[in-house]
Specification:
Length: 907
């Protein structure tokens, strides 16, 4: 209920008890508001109202089951799982039986609701292999019973045409160990007649559409539902929303689960087929108007499938046997009477088959253990029905609902009164409509409608439906809730036919047509069994709530929701244990927050006074507080909602401070531990280091003392250290160039020889590296410098300054003419302009001189042989030429142009 208080402004009121106004308009408005948000469940105290949404909602899954499992009934939003879980856990804690009633109009979702409850128990209860088998049988009984007991009606394509009560048996541990099913008032008349837009029971269509060819051949059936009279009266044999083939497979599988062997299954289908064949048995009149069979084919199939004699069956369908003392007389039937007998036989066969099927299912679910068990009963039965034409079936159904309404109001009032007495609260009488007067009208012994109907059925003579109506008028003419055409006033008589009677039920007026009442009440081939209405009345005495409705206005009235709400709202709308009330609302009073140290009742009294409750607004019971009006509770809840935010902020701040303080404390402790461990580790490390250092110093001193001696264990480490130290220092201070002769480190005495070897190797490596890196031109220069050094070093004064000067290939060139003269021109590059220029010499051994010179210089390309003239440089950088020509005798002279002319002999 606290959840209903929290959510009331968003999605209406989750519990009708908390409505400000208990009017029908307020109830319907609240239902509409919740239904528009796909919230189909609403509480009336412990009763739950469900509105059929006619669509799939994602609220029936394992996740939802887990949410509601073991949770307080009013803690979460209304749901059928909450009801199922509450019944289950109350049964376990109190170890007593519980009963769940599911009622509502056809199409309101009763069958689906019972399935959801069974599925919840199958998932939520403890499981073993045996228990799983029992649960499977319970779940699989639904497809079988739906096939044989459900049919399409105008309002519902899968309407249950029988009432079903299932006992689910639990052991002391809460395990489902067995089950038992009772069926009530199967609508057998549907076997032989269906209204327009309706179908026969599903199993007939499933057999014809889904049965194998071999099976249909064995049963003498054709795969065409239009061929069978009992399947075509409603003119809607094929329905798009129903898949008979798939449903047939489900039924076959379910029969296997509930342990139907092949023999029983075949017998079951043979009986179903016999009903179809029986419906195709037709009659023709003879000359006297007596009934004759049209043909024997269908009759033979019926006798073969049922295992009876065909002649006896034929005789039973066309003649009535009258026994008078020792004689038997056969009285032929008229066609109408023969059809009546045929249909009665079909209904009887199907009714007995359905009863046998239920018993067979019960055998498969029976628990053999004789130990005590607790039971949750699940009743799925018709709701109040009002049609355009209401007959015997509606009379029985509405009588059932009258009894259930009477029982439920009595139980609710009794529970309320007992709670008031237990709490010491003065009981206030509740004004509500007591329907006992209507129940007595129907069931009173010798005076009720059912008794009169039975008497009329058994009365000798020609009893008819109209004589039954006359008897009712005679017996009940003055009853305020009974009226007929003859008894009514002028205005009411216009709404009644002469064969009608009207009852004023708790849910409103219903007009019944008496046509067929006697035949349907007999429901037998001969008068040798109890009448149907009496059986049904006796069955109801054995029954000791979920109300499901469609989205139509009248059902709020037909289901008696208003009466139930008025009873629940009688006196005080809200009551809660002191501990729970104080636990929820204690933040609203400084004296009770955060902890109340006294008795809970005293704390609630202090809290109520602080909130300003008036004396007539609440009462203090022995263990509970009772609040009269929802508005008082709403004001308290609004204050609580407002207070929650402030409390949440304070609690959040406190929690954050507590959490941060705790974290800081943990971090401080951790830091201290880390610091201690680190200091200890450092101290141990320092101790070890110092011990090692002392040991090393001792060894070093001893080795230093013995350093001049031969290598031994005493000085080997010291010598190794000296060697390594020297090599490391030498590595960082090696000479960078070959010419650097002064930076080589002075070695220790023990490494003098090694140092010298390393020095030579290092310089050799540097020289080799230098030489390998010299380019050819520079190498040639060096080679020439070496030769020059060998010739002039120490012999010529100006030799040292010439060393840095490079020898140029272009500095000295040699030119000769192509003639036979001996003139040689040596070209010399002069940096000093005061020099005289190129050298001109004449040599008789020109070839020998130049050849040896080129070999010595290793430069053959330095000598050029030219024709005509050779350009030379003379003093002051001026240029001139030596011209060559031939003549009679060789000569050399200076020509007029200033050039040196050389004449050679022309050979």
């Amino acid at each position: 209920m606290e959840g209903a208080l929290t959510a009331r402004d968003r999605v209406g009121i989750q519990d009708f008890v908390l409505l400000d106004e208990t009017t029908e308009v307020a109830v319907i408005s609240n239902l509409k508001k919740r239904f528009s948000k796909d919230l189909i469940y609403t509480y009336i105290g412990t009763l739950i109202v469900s509105v059929n949404p006619y669509k799939d909602l994602d609220i029936y899954n394992k996740k939802q089951m887990d949410v509601y499992m073991g949770v307080n009934f009013f803690e979460l939003p209304p749901h059928i799982y909450a009801l199922a879980d509450n019944a289950y856990h109350t049964m376990l804690t109190e170890f007593n039986n519980h009963f769940i009633l599911i009622s509502g109009e056809s199409g309101a979702g009763k069958t689906e609701a019972s399935k959801k409850i069974l599925q919840y128990y199958a998932v939520s209860c403890p499981s073993t292999t045996l228990m799983n088998t029992v649960r499977d049988k319970m779940l699989m009984s639904n497809p079988v019973l739906e096939a044989f007991g459900n049919a399409k009606t105008l309002k519902n394509d899968n309407s249950s045409r029988f009432g079903k009560y299932m006992d689910i048996q639990f052991d002391s541990q809460g395990d489902a160990v067995g089950g038992h099913i009772l069926n009530y008032l199967l609508e057998k008349s549907r076997v032989v007649h269906q209204n327009h837009g309706e179908r026969n029971f599903h199993v007939f269509y499933q057999l014809v559409e889904g049965g194998s060819d071999d099976l249909l051949t064995q049963l003498g059936l054709e795969r065409d539902v239009q061929h069978y009279y009992y399947l075509t009266q409603g003119e809607c044999a094929i329905v798009s929303s129903i898949n008979d083939k798939n449903d047939w497979k489900s039924v076959k599988n379910a029969l296997q689960v509930i342990e139907f062997d092949e023999t029983n299954t075949n017998h079951l289908f043979r009986v179903v087929a016999s009903v179809l064949h029986l419906g195709n048995v037709h009659f023709d009149p003879d000359s006297k108007g007596h009934a004759l069979l049209k043909n024997n084919t269908e009759l033979n199939w019926v006798s073969d499938l049922l295992g009876v004699d065909a002649n006896n069956l034929k005789e039973g369908l066309t003649f009535r046997k009258i026994e008078a003392k020792t004689e038997q007389v056969l009285s032929p039937f008229t066609i109408d009477h023969a059809i009546y007998v045929r249909d009665a036989l079909a209904k009887a066969i199907y009714g007995q088959t359905f009863t046998w099927l239920v018993n067979r299912i019960n055998e498969s679910m029976e628990n053999k253990d004789s130990s005590r068990k607790t039971v949750i009963g699940l009743l799925d039965i018709y709701g109040f029905e009002v049609f355009y034409v209401n007959s015997f079936e509606q009379f029985c159904i509405n009588y059932c609902n009258e009894k259930l309404q009477q029982l439920f109001i009595q139980l609710t009032l009794k529970a309320e009164q007992e709670e008031y007495e237990a709490e010491g609260i003065e009981w206030e009488p509740v004004q509500f409509f007591n329907n006992k007067i209507i129940c007595d009208l129907v069931e009173e012994k010798h005076r009720g409608i059912i008794s009169i109907l039975d008497e009329e059925c058994l009365r000798p003579g020609d009893a008819t439906d109209l004589t039954f109506l006359d008897r009712l008028e005679e017996k009940m003419g003055n009853h305020p809730h009974f009226v007929t055409h003859r008894l009514a006033d002028k205005m009411t008589r216009k709404t009644l036919e002469r064969g009608d009677f009207r009852l004023l039920h708790y849910a409103g007026e219903v007009t019944y047509c008496v046509v067929g009442f006697l035949d349907k009440n007999n429901d037998l081939l001969y008068r040798n069994i109890k009448n149907v209405a009496t059986q049904f009345k006796n069955s109801l005495q054995k029954l000791t709530e979920i109300r499901l409705i469609q989205s139509t206005r009248h059902q709020v009235k037909y289901l008696g929701l208003m009466e139930h709400l008025r009873v629940r709202r009688a006196g005080f709308a809200y009551r809660r244990k002191y501990e729970d009330f104080l636990k929820r609302y204690k933040p609203l009073c400084p004296a009770t927050w955060p902890h109340w140290r006294g008795m809970p009742a005293d704390g609630v009294e202090v809290l109520a006074q602080h909130l300003g409750y008036l004396p007539d607004e609440y009462k203090m019971g022995r263990t509970k507080i009772f609040i009269r009006h929802p508005r008082t509770l709403y004001a308290t809840e609004d204050a609580y909602e407002k207070c929650k935010h402030d409390l949440a902020s304070k609690l959040q701040a406190k929690y954050k401070g507590y959490k941060v303080k705790g974290e800081f404390k943990k971090q401080k402790e951790a830091a201290t531990k880390i610091e201690t461990c680190w200091r200890g580790a450092q101290a141990r490390k320092e101790k070890e280091k110092r011990a090692w250092a002392v040991k090393v110093i001792k060894k070093f001193i001893k080795a230093y003392i013995n350093r001049g001696e031969a290598k031994s264990t005493d000085n080997s480490e010291y010598l190794a250290f000296v060697r390594q130290s020297y090599l490391n220092r030498l590595k960082n201070n090696l000479p960078k160039t070959v010419l650097d002769k002064t930076t080589w480190l002075t070695p220790p005495a023990v490494l003098t020889e090694a140092s010298e070897i390393l020095r030579k190797l290092h310089y050799r490596l540097m020289v080799r590296k230098y030489v390998r890196g010299i380019p050819p031109q520079k190498k040639a220069q060096l080679q020439m410098k070496v030769v020059t050094s060998a010739i002039f070093k120490g012999k010529k004064e100006n030799y040292p300054p010439s060393i840095p000067q490079l020898f140029l290939d272009t500095r000295i060139r040699i030119s000769v003419s192509s003639l036979s003269d001996g003139i040689i021109a040596i070209h010399i590059t002069c940096e000093d302009p005061k020099q005289k220029g190129d050298l001109i010499i004449q040599c008789e051994h020109l070839y020998e001189f130049l050849t040896k010179l080129s070999i010595i210089a290793n430069k053959q390309d330095a000598i050029k042989v030219v024709q005509g003239s050779i350009k030379i440089k003379i003093q002051s950088g001026k240029e001139s030429s030596v011209d060559f020509t031939t003549g009679q005798e060789p000569m050399v002279y200076k020509a007029k142009n200033g050039h040196l002319m050389v004449v050679s002999i022309n050979k």
